[in-house]
Write a structure and sequence with these properties.
The structure is a single chain. The protein has 208 residues and is of the alpha+beta class. It has a single domain, classed as Alpha-ketoglutarate-dependent dioxygenase AlkB-like (Jelly Rolls, Sandwich). The strands form four sheets. It has an eight-stranded antiparallel β-sheet. Strands 10-15-12-13 form a four-stranded antiparallel β-sheet. Strands 4-5 form a two-stranded antiparallel sheet. The structure holds 2-oxoglutaric acid and manganese (II) ion.
Amino acid sequence: MIDSLFNSLYESGGWENIAAPDADLRVMPAFYPGQEASALMQRLLEETPWQQEAITLWGKQHLQPRLSAWYGDPGSAYAYSGVVLQPHAWTPTLLRIKSDVENAAGQRFNSVLLNLYRNEEDSVGWHSDAEPELGQCPVIASLTLGETRTFRLRHKSRKELKPLLLDLADGSLLLMAGTTQHCWQHAVLKERRPRGPRINLTFRTIGL
Ligand SMILES: O=C(O)CCC(=O)C(=O)O
Ligand SMILES: [Mn+2]
């Protein structure tokens, strides 16, 4: 967590709340301690059928600058930017992580998007997770394994608000809830300094 945010953090139930207008953001920095996080990272690197999806933007096809995989309950197909991802069936590794995340979040999830950022060149551009199938005020739990990358948030309309920068470290869990997706966008941008691999898992609830 960056220093400038330190004053706006307060603790509740192991969560650090991040004070930001029109958002409900919490972080658990050591949700999985070091060794457990490394073991899970290794298992997911090996077990996941990683794919580089093609997306359509303004009528043009592009390969996404990261690898991904979608898991979920049967029927939880996920559509965005011209891609429709059919879910893989849950693995024991992912079911175990899902149950840990559900206990911390106090909320059930029926799907998860895995992203693998292979190095500093991989990224996800500015967006909000506001697809209709996620519902009105989606709760999204985001687990980071591996390299620390900067997670940026910017308010959609209040341009006077400074972007928030969260350094999401190995084993950390971020919860985004309330009006966060309505009012804010987020991104993990390319970096110049060399970065090792990072896996991010965003647990979601898709209306079936
Ligand atoms: O990698 C991250 O921390 C964010 C990923 C993300 O925003 C997404 O998959 O929708
Ligand atoms: Mn997102």
